[in-house]
Protein backbone atom coordinates (compact mmCIF):
# COMPACT_ATOMS: atom_id res chain seq x y z
CA UNK A 1 0.00 0.00 0.00
CA UNK A 2 2.84 2.41 0.84
CA UNK A 3 4.46 2.01 -2.57
CA UNK A 4 1.09 2.59 -4.21
CA UNK A 5 0.83 5.83 -2.26
CA UNK A 6 4.30 6.76 -3.48
CA UNK A 7 3.06 6.22 -7.01
CA UNK A 8 0.13 8.55 -6.31
CA UNK A 9 2.50 11.16 -4.87
CA UNK A 10 4.78 11.03 -7.90
CA UNK A 11 1.90 11.21 -10.33
CA UNK A 12 0.46 14.20 -8.49
CA UNK A 13 3.88 15.86 -8.44
CA UNK A 14 4.11 15.68 -12.23
CA UNK A 15 0.57 17.02 -12.60
CA UNK A 16 1.34 19.90 -10.24
CA UNK A 17 4.39 20.73 -12.34
CA UNK A 18 2.04 20.75 -15.33
CA UNK A 19 3.92 18.14 -17.30
CA UNK A 20 0.76 17.61 -19.32
CA UNK A 21 0.90 21.18 -20.64
CA UNK A 22 4.54 20.79 -21.62
CA UNK A 23 3.63 17.57 -23.41
CA UNK A 24 0.81 19.33 -25.23
CA UNK A 25 -1.88 17.00 -23.95
CA UNK A 26 -4.73 17.26 -21.45
CA UNK A 27 -4.33 16.40 -17.77
CA UNK A 28 -6.54 13.33 -18.18
CA UNK A 29 -4.51 12.14 -21.21
CA UNK A 30 -1.31 12.53 -19.22
CA UNK A 31 -2.70 10.62 -16.25
CA UNK A 32 -3.97 7.88 -18.55
CA UNK A 33 -0.49 7.63 -20.06
CA UNK A 34 1.07 6.91 -16.65
CA UNK A 35 -1.75 4.98 -14.98
CA UNK A 36 -0.78 1.54 -16.42
CA UNK A 37 2.48 1.81 -14.45
CA UNK A 38 0.50 1.51 -11.22
CA UNK A 39 -0.02 -2.21 -11.83
CA UNK A 40 3.75 -2.67 -12.02
CA UNK A 41 4.23 -0.83 -8.73
CA UNK A 42 1.68 -3.12 -7.08
CA UNK A 43 3.85 -6.10 -8.02
CA UNK A 44 6.92 -4.72 -6.24
CA UNK A 45 8.13 -6.20 -2.99
CA UNK A 46 10.74 -3.65 -2.00
CA UNK A 47 11.44 -1.57 1.12
CA UNK A 48 10.57 2.11 1.30
CA UNK A 49 13.11 4.71 0.27
CA UNK A 50 16.06 5.59 2.48
CA UNK A 51 17.69 8.89 1.52
CA UNK A 52 20.63 8.43 3.91
CA UNK A 53 21.56 5.11 2.33
CA UNK A 54 20.81 6.47 -1.12
CA UNK A 55 18.04 4.00 -1.96
CA UNK A 56 14.68 4.41 -3.71
CA UNK A 57 12.27 1.59 -4.62
CA UNK A 58 11.13 3.25 -7.87
CA UNK A 59 10.56 6.48 -9.74
CA UNK A 60 8.32 7.37 -12.68
CA UNK A 61 10.52 8.41 -15.61
CA UNK A 62 8.99 10.67 -18.26
CA UNK A 63 11.27 10.59 -21.29
CA UNK A 64 12.66 13.64 -23.03
CA UNK A 65 10.71 12.49 -26.11
CA UNK A 66 7.68 13.87 -24.27
CA UNK A 67 9.15 16.58 -22.01
CA UNK A 68 12.31 18.33 -23.28
CA UNK A 69 15.30 17.93 -20.97
CA UNK A 70 15.79 21.66 -20.44
CA UNK A 71 12.14 22.07 -19.42
CA UNK A 72 12.23 19.08 -17.07
CA UNK A 73 15.44 20.24 -15.37
CA UNK A 74 14.06 23.76 -14.92
CA UNK A 75 11.16 22.27 -12.93
CA UNK A 76 13.47 20.56 -10.45
CA UNK A 77 13.43 22.50 -7.19
CA UNK A 78 15.60 21.96 -4.12
CA UNK A 79 15.67 24.30 -1.14
CA UNK A 80 14.10 27.08 -3.19
CA UNK A 81 16.63 26.74 -6.04
CA UNK A 82 15.61 25.56 -9.51
CA UNK A 83 17.63 23.16 -11.64
CA UNK A 84 19.96 24.27 -14.41
CA UNK A 85 21.91 22.64 -17.24
CA UNK A 86 25.56 23.39 -18.01
CA UNK A 87 26.82 20.86 -20.54
CA UNK A 88 28.84 23.28 -22.69
CA UNK A 89 30.05 22.75 -25.38
CA UNK A 90 27.26 20.17 -25.73
CA UNK A 91 23.51 19.98 -25.18
CA UNK A 92 21.50 17.11 -23.62
CA UNK A 93 20.54 15.82 -27.06
CA UNK A 94 24.23 15.27 -27.86
CA UNK A 95 24.36 12.50 -25.24
CA UNK A 96 23.09 9.08 -26.30
CA UNK A 97 22.30 5.94 -24.32
CA UNK A 98 25.13 3.40 -24.38
CA UNK A 99 24.54 0.24 -26.39
CA UNK A 100 24.29 -2.22 -23.49
CA UNK A 101 21.50 -0.29 -21.72
CA UNK A 102 17.96 -0.88 -22.96
CA UNK A 103 15.56 1.98 -22.37
CA UNK A 104 11.86 1.06 -22.81
CA UNK A 105 10.39 2.23 -26.10
CA UNK A 106 7.59 4.12 -24.34
CA UNK A 107 6.96 7.72 -23.30
CA UNK A 108 7.18 6.79 -19.61
CA UNK A 109 8.33 3.85 -17.50
CA UNK A 110 9.44 2.84 -14.00
CA UNK A 111 13.03 2.81 -12.80
CA UNK A 112 13.27 0.08 -10.15
CA UNK A 113 15.57 -0.40 -7.12
CA UNK A 114 17.69 2.74 -7.35
CA UNK A 115 21.10 3.17 -5.71
CA UNK A 116 22.69 6.63 -5.56
CA UNK A 117 26.19 5.14 -5.64
CA UNK A 118 27.38 5.57 -2.06
CA UNK A 119 29.78 2.64 -2.38
CA UNK A 120 31.52 4.04 -5.46
CA UNK A 121 32.06 7.63 -4.35
CA UNK A 122 35.50 8.92 -5.35
CA UNK A 123 35.88 6.24 -8.02
CA UNK A 124 36.32 7.19 -11.68
CA UNK A 125 33.22 6.40 -13.76
CA UNK A 126 35.23 3.85 -15.73
CA UNK A 127 35.84 1.86 -12.52
CA UNK A 128 32.35 2.40 -11.11
CA UNK A 129 30.81 1.09 -14.32
CA UNK A 130 32.57 -2.26 -13.94
CA UNK A 131 31.34 -2.63 -10.36
CA UNK A 132 27.76 -1.75 -11.33
CA UNK A 133 27.74 -4.35 -14.10
CA UNK A 134 29.33 -7.00 -11.84
CA UNK A 135 26.38 -6.58 -9.46
CA UNK A 136 23.90 -7.20 -12.27
CA UNK A 137 22.74 -3.61 -12.20
CA UNK A 138 22.44 -0.88 -14.83
CA UNK A 139 23.85 2.66 -14.91
CA UNK A 140 21.38 5.50 -15.31
CA UNK A 141 20.66 7.87 -18.21
CA UNK A 142 20.04 11.63 -18.15
CA UNK A 143 16.23 11.32 -18.22
CA UNK A 144 16.41 8.99 -15.23
CA UNK A 145 18.64 11.24 -13.15
CA UNK A 146 16.31 14.17 -13.75
CA UNK A 147 13.32 12.02 -12.84
CA UNK A 148 14.89 11.13 -9.49
CA UNK A 149 15.54 14.73 -8.44
CA UNK A 150 12.17 15.82 -9.83
CA UNK A 151 10.37 13.49 -7.44
CA UNK A 152 12.92 13.50 -4.61
CA UNK A 153 15.14 16.62 -4.66
CA UNK A 154 16.33 15.75 -1.16
CA UNK A 155 17.91 12.60 -2.64
CA UNK A 156 20.61 14.89 -4.05
CA UNK A 157 23.01 15.62 -1.21
CA UNK A 158 26.24 17.58 -1.10
CA UNK A 159 28.53 14.66 -0.27
CA UNK A 160 26.89 12.12 -2.60
CA UNK A 161 25.78 13.60 -5.89
CA UNK A 162 25.71 11.16 -8.80
CA UNK A 163 26.96 10.45 -12.31
CA UNK A 164 24.74 9.11 -15.09
CA UNK A 165 26.97 6.60 -16.82
CA UNK A 166 24.40 5.32 -19.32
CA UNK A 167 24.40 8.61 -21.26
CA UNK A 168 27.57 9.38 -23.17
CA UNK A 169 28.81 11.77 -25.82
CA UNK A 170 30.37 9.79 -28.63
CA UNK A 171 33.97 10.67 -29.35
CA UNK A 172 35.03 11.99 -25.94
CA UNK A 173 35.11 11.02 -22.26
CA UNK A 174 32.43 13.34 -20.94
CA UNK A 175 30.05 11.74 -18.45
CA UNK A 176 26.90 13.63 -17.37
CA UNK A 177 26.19 14.04 -13.68
CA UNK A 178 23.82 15.90 -11.38
CA UNK A 179 25.28 17.80 -8.45
CA UNK A 180 24.70 20.83 -6.24
CA UNK A 181 26.70 23.77 -7.58
CA UNK A 182 28.28 26.67 -5.70
CA UNK A 183 24.99 28.57 -5.85
CA UNK A 184 23.24 25.53 -4.30
CA UNK A 185 21.34 24.80 -7.50
CA UNK A 186 20.72 21.29 -8.82
CA UNK A 187 23.06 21.23 -11.81
CA UNK A 188 23.17 18.85 -14.78
CA UNK A 189 26.73 19.01 -16.02
CA UNK A 190 29.54 16.67 -16.98
CA UNK A 191 32.80 15.29 -15.62
CA UNK A 192 35.61 13.34 -17.27
CA UNK A 193 35.40 9.55 -17.34
CA UNK A 194 38.77 9.08 -15.66
CA UNK A 195 38.37 11.62 -12.88
CA UNK A 196 37.31 10.63 -9.33
CA UNK A 197 35.49 13.10 -7.05
CA UNK A 198 35.12 12.78 -3.29
CA UNK A 199 31.48 13.94 -3.51
CA UNK A 200 30.37 12.08 -6.62
CA UNK A 201 29.15 8.50 -6.97
CA UNK A 202 27.62 6.68 -9.93
CA UNK A 203 23.93 5.84 -9.68
CA UNK A 204 22.37 2.56 -10.82
CA UNK A 205 19.13 0.62 -10.95
CA UNK A 206 18.13 -3.04 -10.94
CA UNK A 207 15.71 -2.86 -13.87
CA UNK A 208 13.25 -0.82 -15.91
CA UNK A 209 9.61 -1.81 -16.41
CA UNK A 210 6.65 -0.41 -18.34
Name the poorly predicted regions.
Answer: none
Biggest β-sheet: count, sense, barrel? 5 strands, mixed
What Rg is obtained from the alpha carbons, in whole angstroms? Answer: 16 Å
**Helix vs. strand class:** alpha+beta
Average pLDDT number: 97
Written overview of the protein:
The chain has one domain. 29% of the residues lie in helices and 26% in strands. The protein has helices at 2-16, 19-23, 27-34, 37-42, 69-74, 125-134, 142-151; strands at residues 55-62, 77-78, 81-82, 84-85, 96-97, 108-115, 138-139, 161-163, 167-168, 174-180, 186-192, 200-202, 204-209. The longest helix is centred in the first third of the chain and has 15 residues, at 2-16. It is globular and about 45 Å long. The relative contact order is 0.19.
Describe the structure using short key phrases.
4-stranded antiparallel beta sheet; 5-stranded mixed beta sheet; alpha+beta; 210 residues
Tell me the layout of helices and strands.
Elements lengths: L1 H15 L2 H5 L3 H8 L2 H6 L12 E8 L6 H6 L2 E2 L2 E2 L1 E2 L10 E2 L10 E8 L9 H10 L3 E2 L2 H10 L9 E3 L3 E2 L5 E7 L5 E7 L7 E3 L1 E6 L1
Parallel strand pairs: 4-11, 8-12
Antiparallel strand pairs: 1-6, 2-3, 5-9, 6-13, 7-13, 8-10, 10-11
Amino acid sequence: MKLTQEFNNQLQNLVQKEYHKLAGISKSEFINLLEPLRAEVEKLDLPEGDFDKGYLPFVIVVKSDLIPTNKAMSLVEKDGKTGIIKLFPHTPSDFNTISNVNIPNTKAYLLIDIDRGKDNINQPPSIAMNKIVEKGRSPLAIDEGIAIVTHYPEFLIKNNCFSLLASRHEGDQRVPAIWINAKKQPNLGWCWDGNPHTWLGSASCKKRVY
